[in-house]
Amino acid sequence: MKSTGELIFYKTFEDSFNIKLTSSFLSAIFSFVKQTLKTKELSEIEVGPFRFIFEVEKADSSELMFALFSDRTD
Q1: In a domain, 48, yes or no
Q2: Nearest to 14, CA basis, from 50, 66, 55, 64
């Protein structure tokens, strides 16, 4: 996903949530962390029984965010 929230690729094994809504949500969280906490060091978020794991990489002039969504037990 681009830092703007634009989804580039996804692979799902279950249809348990809206992927486009989720990419916008994750983009908003990263923007909040950058602007409010003045850091880019967000590597994971746990919400209920779920875990999001992140990796941000620079590609040319933009940032790409890789996100893995799993159960906490995975």
Answers
A1: yes
A2: 50
